[in-house]
Amino acid sequence: MKTRKWPAICLAILTLCMGSCQDWGQMNPIPGHQVLPKLELVANLTFDDEKLNPEEIQTFAYPDGDIPSLFTDETLGQVLQFEGGYARIFNPLNKVKVQDGVSLTFWMKQAIPEEDEDASTFEQDVTGAIFSFENANSTQRMFFTANGWLHYEGVDGSYEDNNPADAKTGLMSAGEWHYVAISVKNNGYFVYVDGLKKIEKTVSDFDCSKIVQFMASVPYLYIGYGSDTENQKWLLDDLSVYRNTITNAEIAVPKKGGDSSVEGGELYPGQVFFSDFERENDGTTIYGKGSFIDFGGNFGRVFQNVGGAQRSNYLILPEDVLSHSAETKELSIGVWVNAANAGASADYMWAPLFSAYASGPATDNGTPMFICQYRGILQVNCNGWCDFTDAQNTNHVNGVYHDATDWLADKGWHYYTVTLTETNAKVYFDGVLKNEWNVSGSGDGNVIGGLFSNGSDLKYICLGGNQAWNWGDNDPGFMFDDIAIYNKALTKAEIDNIIAYKKLPTPTYFNDFEKGVGNATIYGAGTIERPGGAWGNVFQNVGGALRSNYLVLPEDALSHTADTKQLTVAVWVNSENAGASTDYMWAPLFMAYGSGPATDNGAPMLACQYRGVLQVNCSGWCDFTDAQNTAGVNVAYHDATDWLADKDWHLYTAVFTETNAKVYFDGVLKNEWNVSGSGDGNVIAGLFSNGSDLKYICLGGNQAWNWGDNDPGFAFDHISIYNVALTQEQIKVLVSRKK
Predict the structure, then answer these.
(1) Whose CB among 226, 280, 600, 621 lies 3.0–4.6 Å from 617's, allowing a Cys bridge?
(2) What are the angstrom distances between the C-alpha of 455 and each of 72, 219, 272, 490?
(3) Phi, psi of 404, deg, nearest 5
(4) What residue ranges carry the coiled-coil annotation (predicted)?
């Protein structure tokens, strides 16, 4: 029996945002298209205020338990603690129309025994409900547990998966914070933990839309209650509830509770929307005949539109992407564009590139409206208007880039950028300024600011078509990639950096650990951890032992340089958990051998020592001596000159050609050697001709020869191997991407 226990005083006013907008359905979809689902955040509980408001969140206790209370956690700050209690809120989904799913995201941490408690009988709680939905008389319910156990029982049938009585899934560990993102969809459900996909289930033997609509219809959402088992002690923070299915933006792990910026380096400062189309539709919707295709190379999966028709084919972005500039009063849009499949220049010379309206499509797309024409000109009519005339152009004439001056005529990829403030607008192609306008900011024909104050009115946002007014211009058959929207005006330097990063050579091997260890293997005691900030998952090695702990890369990672005769190894390194500088001053960083491990790691061998020196012994050898150093002496960066002493992240890069080698820290050249390329002590080229002999490739340990240097307790991220010699400028681009 449940026992209700109210606090003697009001506990935390909780930020509980419940809102609704008009359902989509204002448009008349073309035949075969359904009404478009709209992702909407309908509740967000942050637990940041001083007291809980009992009118917004009701707290209860199990027999002999305590009501949930606010607790200060050293990692996430103020959170909600459950120790023999549970809570409920009015179901925010009652106020909206749910279409294709219900989604929740939250931080949670299950307690483990304290040091002075008996841990011998401890078992992780995998049966207590994290959240549940239940009808008024408790005869129907749906709940979810830390085992990924999704259980539904209703008058219209029942369904469950991952019942811990059948098997323990290991969905998440106890004793540490995890970020959980779950969507229950009409055809199944998925669960991500710490940004990693843990469960993705398509259900064919039960209609999961019944679960979705049940979750949307019952009066309460319960937290810490709903299964037949009381929860053990646990903590909760930043619970968000969404109607419909969440996208990459919501799945990505926030830097900390309450901070919506995303780990992993995908979002630049001010970036409010980004999609590279690598995971499903990323919250976008294809209108008409376009499709996602695999272009390959640095572009991967892209959106290919279909040209020729009018207001018929384009990609619809989430309706809130232009609503984030009210405070900053700035906006930028960037996207890669390719006309390889769009026909001749004359086929798209008047085409729209990016357009936004209140609703659509319509044969007369009037106000509110924002249009970016492919040819490099703009128009705004949103709580004020501006036509960006010749007179307002800083060159006193608008540059029109189409037909004979088509900037896409070479059928390659080019980067389009528009930046806007209240009194200025710029259009760039590939980082080159093509048009700039200055306006007064007030009065007819001079108002850009409505884009910021009323950006939320622009809900029907189209990439690749849907021309403005009643103009008869066809949608273009362009390809698009990496659509990004910012609530700031990007500088030319920032635009150049985005372009340079995209144009970097493609690594022949890369691992950012966002899918766990991936195709590498942990040898010894290292783990995949999540330190926060811009790093996402990282490999955390364990230091102190000799040839015992490191990461083994796939055996072919160094086998791709026979033709190019160049090699670059780049990896981010952090010594926060590695002890004092003297604990790792002779440590190996990146090592490769014919096999291993061994107490005497001889030839073939490549050794990149942490302190900035190198050695090659692979079908020829080079010790990279003082005499070969361009400075006349090798500089060893360790002990008093430890480059990792600040315990921050730094990029290590080693670059090899047949006659030259360089070591960089954070894009700064630290050691360089020139060799003849032939004769004893001068051969690097065996790395290329015989790179496939180096099959046992180690990150973070396994010292060369019989030297007695311990494996270091470094953390590593973004290990990249290239079959080209990166330039210093390219390395600096890698650095700027993360710092």
Answers:
(1) 621
(2) 37, 33, 13, 18
(3) -65, -20
(4) none
CA distance 50 to 560: 59
User: Which residues, including other chains, have CB under 8 Å from residue 251's CB and lie 6 or more apart?
Assistant: 105, 181, 192, 195
Place of tokens 């408001």: 53
Give me the sign of the Cα torsion angle 377, 381, 383, 386. positive
CATH class of 271-503: mainly beta
Give, in order, the Cα–Cα distances in Å from 173 to each of 50, 120, 160, 515.
30, 17, 22, 16
Q: pTM of whole model > 0.85? A: no
Would you tell me which CATH number, out of the four given (3.90.1590.10, 2.40.50.140, 1.10.760.10, 2.60.120.200), belongs to the domain 40-114+123-243?
A: 2.60.120.200
Please, which residues bridge with residue 672 across strands? 662
User: Residues 6 or more apart from 665 whose CB is under 8 A from it?
Assistant: 612, 637, 643, 650, 651, 652, 653
Beta-carbon count within 10 A of 323 CB: 17
Provide the sign of the torsion angle of the four alpha carbons 643, 644, 645, 649, taken in this order.
positive
Report phi then psi at 53, rounded to 5: -100, 110
- Is it the case that residue 257 has pLDDT exceeding 80? no
CA atoms within 13 A on the CB side of 157: 9
The secondary structure of 149-184, three-state, reads CEEEEECCEEEEECCCCCCCCCCCCCCCCEEEEEEE
Cα 445 to Cα 391, 420, 452: the distances in Å are 11, 15, 16
Which residue reads 């500089």 in tokens? 635
Instruction: Please state at what angle helix 728-738 crosses helix 492-502, rounded to 10 degrees.
Output: 110
CB atoms within 10 A of CB 436: 17
Mean pLDDT of the residues in the chain: 89
The whole-number pLDDT of residue 179 equals 92
Tell me what the mean pLDDT of segment 191-198 comes to.
Answer: 84
- Output the six-digit token pair for 497: 């950096």
Determine contact, residues 179/253, Cβ cutoff 8 Å. yes
Ranges for all domains in the chain classified under CATH 2.60.120.200: 40-114+123-243, 271-503, 509-737
**Residues 6 or more apart whose Cβ sits within 8 Å of residue 32:** none
Per CATH, domain 509-737 is 2.60.120.200: yes
pLDDT digits (tens, 9 = 90+) for 433-476: 999 999 999 999 999 999 999 999 999 999 999 999 999 999 99
Q: Are 313 and 30 in contact (CB under 8 A)?
A: no
SS3 content of the chain, % helix, strand, coil (to 5): 10, 35, 55
591 pairs with which residues across the strands?
607, 698
Asked whether the beta carbons of 512 and 195 are under 8 A apart, the reply is no
Residue 186: helix, strand or coil by DSSP?
coil
More confident residue, 126 or 516: 126
**Tell me, what's the pLDDT at 25?**
27
CA torsion sign for 603, 608, 610, 613 is: positive
Q: How many Å apart are CA 318 and CA 356, to the nearest integer?
A: 11
With the C-alpha atoms ordered 611, 616, 621, 627, is the resulting torsion angle positive or negative? negative
Secondary structure of residue 523 in the 3-state scheme? strand
